[in-house]
């Protein structure tokens, strides 16, 4: 038997995916900032060594 198309379920799925991608983008930005901070810290420590 073929599945029946349920618009609400498809919309919910798309909304969930959009939210996940937005969350992923935020996390990537946070990690990029943390990574940059670590690089600056390492560079600063190696200059003082």
Molecular structure report:
The radius of gyration is 21 Å and the shape is rod-shaped. The protein is built from 1 helix and no strands. It starts with 6 loop residues before the first helix and ends with a helix. It has one helix at 7-48. 0% of the residues are buried. The chain is mostly helical and 49 residues long. 86% of the residues lie in helices and 0% in strands.
Topology diagram in text:
Layout: H1 7-48
From the structure above, extract its key features.
mainly alpha, 86% helix, 0% strand
Radius of gyration: 21 Å
Number of strands: 0
Instruction: Report how far the terminal alpha carbons are from each other.
Output: 70 Å
How many H/I helices?
1
The main β sheet shows up as: none
Low-pLDDT segments: none
N-to-C series of helices and strands? H
Shape: rod-shaped
**Beta-strand percentage?**
under 5%
Mean pLDDT, all residues: 87
Helix content: over 70%
Return the structural class.
mainly alpha
């Amino acid at each position: 038997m073929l599945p029946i198309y349920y618009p609400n379920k498809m919309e919910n799925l798309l909304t969930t995916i959009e939210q996940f991608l937005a969350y992923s983008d935020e996390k990537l930005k946070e990690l990029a900032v943390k990574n940059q901070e670590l690089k600056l810290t390492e560079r600063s420590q190696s200059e003082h060594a």
